[in-house]
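TASK: fixed-backbone design
INPUT:
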């Protein structure tokens, strides 16, 4: 039998564990905005939730999203999807680009054929963009050589 350690702390609440955070800037007034994603935690069987909060400068932190899922991963993915939808159209700045918060577009994957089509379209466009970039570089190199 093991004895409890005297002065042992209570286990930490998983919903208060920060998984990731991002510092953004608000274009309209230049204030810093802190986006925080917390660890998913079990609400009740079988539901999980994942909180995302936002804090502007010295204002109080406010709940932006409390996404639900059937497990921790689904709750986290749903939180990312909801956060992107709520913030991408705003005046937040990340890496110098207004309206960009750096969260990727996550597509629904309930239809494998649809997802395959979208992936093929994205890969084709990516290849097209790479070809355009390559041609542009060649033209610029030729132009430099003529000057």
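OUTPUT:
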């Amino acid at each position: 039998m093991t004895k409890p350690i005297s002065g042992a702390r209570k286990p930490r609440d998983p919903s208060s564990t920060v998984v990731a955070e991002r510092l953004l800037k608000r274009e309209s007034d230049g204030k810093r905005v802190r986006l925080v994603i917390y660890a998913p935690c079990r609400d009740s069987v079988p539901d999980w939730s994942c909180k995302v909060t936002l804090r502007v400068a010295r204002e109080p932190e406010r709940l932006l999203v409390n996404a639900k899922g059937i497990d921790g991963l689904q709750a986290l993915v749903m939180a990312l999807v909801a956060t992107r939808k709520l913030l991408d159209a705003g005046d937040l700045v990340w890496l110098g680009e207004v309206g960009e918060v750096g969260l990727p577009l996550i597509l629904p994957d309930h239809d494998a054929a649809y997802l395959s089509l979208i992936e093929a379209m994205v890969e084709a466009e990516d290849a097209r963009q790479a070809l355009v970039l390559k041609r542009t570089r060649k033209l610029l190199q030729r132009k430099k050589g003529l000057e």
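COMMENT: The CA atoms of residues 25 and 104 lie 18 Å apart.
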